[in-house]
């Protein structure tokens, strides 16, 4: 592939507490806000606590999930005092870091999240050809020795993209698990701190004209979600993720493999025809969304060499 | 309860059995009695104590609405009862969803932690329209399963909990001298081999005891971790279900006249709690549990061992002289209670052989 010249990544946003009980991001944002910028940083970074009320209460959200409020429809809907708090907040964040889709939007938005699933570190984006995001992923994979790093892609057009990271010109959620909600685990905090630092290092190198060699990145593209078995009348969950599947995010799931174990001891198996990669297995916040796990296809994506545009 | 005149019962042990009946009325006499008769330990081991039958037990889940294993165990037991009626279990069992509103919203509690509402003060204070939901519910449960301290109270409450801490299966109760509860603990330790089974004693007088299991004549909590709140893991559910089934099994065997041999039970006694380092103004955490302490519940903590790693990279160490055992390390619900972990002392409890009293 031919080398690609891309605009510098001059303005970066680091956001935490988009879900108020995902604490590694909350504490990382607090640390960053304590260390005030002294003007010598090579990149302009804005650090934001996305959902302060939810953080204060240590809940995922107060009225509605903030990270589903960034579709074009929600961002342009009229708001009043009676609108849900998170809807008002999403429009504030869009004004601060966007507007989404415009030339004023930050160049890169990194949104920090935790999951109860055993995902390691994932960069989750809406594009499988955003070379900046893919190169950052490759850099983290190279430099992070003890944490698996993966690239997860949701194939959704920008207008319908619903999460905060879609506000930046480039953006991703940096998701790290497993960590229970409302808990901060030291190794998870450190991994997130390292991930953000490596991202900043890459951006500085990129902006100063470094050529990053192309190569290949495994991309996991989300295909579908699977819900828990539920009682037909009460809708109550009747089985848990099977012990053979629990904690095995990104391990290939074959047709016939165990998926769920009912309270009465019965095994339910994967009935799909295609072997797929499960992830977000048993994420606590997804019970109410009707998701036990998500399934993805993996493919190798070739990425070109990249260099920033300002230096030829 | 009468003092049985068995040839095995020495004078010292007879006093202990008498004190055991005093316990049902509450009071500190039992603690003094145990201290005075420590020399009877060897005689205790060889003796056989006759105890009243256990007519009925209660299995309670969802006392904290987001601790899901107990919610699903109770749900499954209710399904079994619908299918088989009284034949579902070999002994009479009542199943209770303790805090239904919190379960519905998948939260620990709605207004107040229900598992702090069962002390005498709360149970005896009048209910008004502005009483928190959980206080109302505690009164209801005390009527259903108690009243606490009376002879009408149900014989055994088994209250099901989860923790984000790596505690395996921990059996928690108030006193060191309830032979029934300790024998059940010993039985579970013998039968459950895939998970560490530990006994935790809080050493609080019954009237001050604030949790649900203090309502019954004998009671304990089954705490299983690690599991995130709001999540149900199949492996954790299976452990809890097995512990409940074994408890029912013990009671059935005990009621049928089986002798359970005495011996030593290793237990941990709660000593104190340690909070996180906090910012003096905002009270937010400035450090997390150190990676070398995280997940090492019940290890021995010695002077100089790391406790916390601050977000800016400094290590805070354990400065006390006395080595103690930490547990409930990094329990999510304890951040607001200002507890990073508890510390306990290991001890050996000696229990006599027991058999059900024949009428």
TrEMBL record, chain A:
Cofactor binding, per record: Binds 1 zinc ion per subunit.
Cofactor(s) this protein requires: Zn(2+)
InterPro entries tied to this protein: AspA/AstE_fam (IPR050178), Aspartoacylase (IPR016708), AstE_AspA_cat (IPR055438), Aste_AspA_hybrid_dom (IPR007036)
Pfam families assigned: AstE_AspA_cat, AstE_AspA_hybrid
Catalytic activities: an N-acyl-aromatic L-alpha-amino acid + H2O = an aromatic L-alpha-amino acid + a carboxylate; an N-acetyl-L-cysteine-S-conjugate + H2O = an S-substituted L-cysteine + acetate
EC number(s) given by UniProt: 3.5.1.114
Main localization of the protein described in the UniProt heading: membrane
Membrane topology: Peripheral membrane protein
Stretches assigned to the Succinylglutamate desuccinylase/Aspartoacylase catalytic domain: 10-202
Any single GO CC term annotated in Swiss-Prot or TrEMBL for this entry: cytosol
List of catalytic residues: 175
Keywords annotated in UniProt: Cell membrane, Cytoplasm, Hydrolase, Membrane, Metal-binding, Zinc
MF terms (GO), sorted A to Z: aminoacylase activity; hydrolase activity, acting on ester bonds; metal ion binding
Subcellular location: Apical cell membrane; Cytoplasm
Record: residues binding Zn(2+): 19, 22, 113
Residue ranges of domain AstE/AspA barrel-sandwich hybrid in the record: 217-298
Family: Belongs to the AspA/AstE family. Aspartoacylase subfamily.
PANTHER family assigned to the protein according to its UniProt record, in alphabetical order: ASPARTOACYLASE (PTHR15162), N-ACYL-AROMATIC-L-AMINO ACID AMIDOHYDROLASE (CARBOXYLATE-FORMING) (PTHR15162:SF5)
Full protein name: N-acyl-aromatic-L-amino acid amidohydrolase
Organism field: Cyprinus carpio (Common carp)
Gene label: LOC109112463
UniProtKB/TrEMBL annotation, chain B:
Cell membrane keyword on record: yes
Recorded GO MF terms: aminoacylase activity; hydrolase activity, acting on ester bonds; metal ion binding
Catalytic activity reported: an N-acyl-aromatic L-alpha-amino acid + H2O = an aromatic L-alpha-amino acid + a carboxylate; an N-acetyl-L-cysteine-S-conjugate + H2O = an S-substituted L-cysteine + acetate
InterPro entries: AspA/AstE_fam, Aspartoacylase, AstE_AspA_cat, Aste_AspA_hybrid_dom
Topology with respect to the bilayer: Peripheral membrane protein
Leader sequence segment: none
Family: Belongs to the AspA/AstE family. Aspartoacylase subfamily.
Protein name: N-acyl-aromatic-L-amino acid amidohydrolase
Organism: Cyprinus carpio (Common carp)
UniProt lineage: Eukaryota, Metazoa, Chordata, Craniata, Vertebrata
Gene name as annotated: LOC109045324
């Amino acid at each position: 592939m031919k080398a690609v010249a891309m605009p510098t990544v001059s303005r970066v946003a680091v956001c935490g507490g988009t879900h108020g009980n995902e604490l590694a991001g909350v504490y990382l944002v607090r640390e960053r806000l304590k260390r005030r910028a002294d003007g010598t940083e090579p990149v302009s970074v804005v650090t934001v606590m996305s959902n302060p009320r939810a953080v204060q209460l240590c809940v995922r959200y107060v009225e509605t999930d903030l990270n589903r409020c960034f579709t074009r429809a929600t961002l342009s809907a009229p708001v009043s005092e009676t609108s849900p708090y998170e809807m008002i907040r999403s429009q504030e964040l869009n004004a601060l870091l966007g507007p989404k889709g415009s030339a004023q939007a930050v160049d890169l938005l990194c949104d920090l999240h935790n999951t109860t699933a055993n995902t390691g570190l994932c960069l989750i984006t809406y594009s499988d050809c955003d070379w900046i995001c893919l190169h950052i992923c490759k850099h983290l994979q190279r430099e992070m020795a003890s944490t698996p790093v993966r690239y997860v892609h949701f194939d959704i057009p920008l207008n319908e993209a619903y999460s905060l990271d879609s506000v930046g010109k480039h953006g991703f959620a940096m998701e790290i698990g497993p960590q229970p909600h409302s808990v901060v685990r030291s190794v998870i905090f450190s991994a997130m701190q390292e991930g953000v630092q490596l991202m900043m290092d890459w951006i500085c190198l990129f902006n100063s004209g470094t050529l990053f060699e192309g190569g290949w990145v495994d991309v996991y593209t989300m295909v579908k979600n699977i819900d828990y078995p539920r009682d037909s009348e009460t809708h109550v969950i009747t089985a848990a993720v099977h012990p053979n599947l629990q904690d095995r995010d990104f391990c290939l799931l074959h047709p016939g493999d165990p998926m769920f174990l009912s309270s009465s001891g019965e095994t339910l198996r994967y009935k799909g025809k295609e072997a797929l990669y499960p992830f977000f297995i048993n994420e606590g916040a997804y019970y109410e969304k009707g998701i036990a796990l998500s399934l993805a296809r993996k493919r190798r994506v070739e990425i070109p060499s990249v260099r920033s545009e300002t230096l030829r | 309860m009468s003092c049985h005149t068995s040839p095995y019962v020495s004078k010292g042990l007879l006093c202990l059995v008498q004190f055991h009946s005093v316990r049902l009325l509450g009071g500190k006499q039992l603690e003094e009695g145990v201290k005075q008769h420590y020399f009877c330990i060897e005689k205790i081991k060889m003796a056989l104590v006759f105890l009243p039958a256990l007519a009925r037990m209660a299995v309670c889940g969802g006392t904290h609405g987001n601790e899901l294993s107990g919610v699903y165990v109770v749900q499954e037991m209710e399904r079994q009862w619908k299918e088989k009626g009284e034949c579902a279990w070999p002994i009479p069992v009542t199943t209770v969803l303790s805090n239904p509103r919190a379960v519905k919203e998948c939260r620990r509690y709605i207004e107040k932690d229900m598992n702090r509402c069962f002390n005498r003060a709360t149970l005896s204070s009048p209910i008004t329209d502005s009483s928190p939901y959980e206080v109302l519910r505690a009164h209801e449960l005390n009527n259903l399963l108690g009243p606490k301290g009376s002879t009408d109270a149900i014989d055994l409450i088994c209250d099901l909990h989860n923790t984000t801490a790596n505690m395996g299966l921990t059996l928690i109760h108030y006193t060191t001298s309830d032979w029934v509860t300790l024998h059940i603990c010993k039985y579970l330790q013998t039968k459950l081999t895939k998970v560490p089974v530990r006994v935790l004693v809080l050493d609080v007088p019954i009237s001050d005891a604030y949790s649900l299991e203090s309502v019954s004549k004998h009671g304990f909590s089954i705490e299983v971790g690690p599991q995130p709140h709001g999540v149900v893991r199949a492996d954790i559910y299976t452990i809890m279900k097995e512990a409940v089934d074994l408890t029912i099994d013990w009671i059935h065997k005990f009621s049928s006249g089986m002798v359970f041999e005495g011996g030593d039970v290793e237990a941990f006694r709660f000593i104190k709690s340690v909070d996180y380092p906090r910012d003096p103004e905002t009270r937010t955490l400035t450090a997390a549990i150190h990676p070398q302490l995280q997940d090492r519940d019940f290890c021995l903590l010695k002077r100089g061992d790391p406790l916390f790693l601050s977000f800016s990279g400094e290590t805070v160490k354990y400065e006390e002289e006395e080595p103690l055992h930490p547990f409930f390390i990094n329990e999510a619900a304890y951040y607001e209670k200002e507890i990073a972990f508890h510390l306990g002392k290991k001890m050996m409890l000696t229990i006599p052989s027991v058999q059900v009293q024949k009428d």
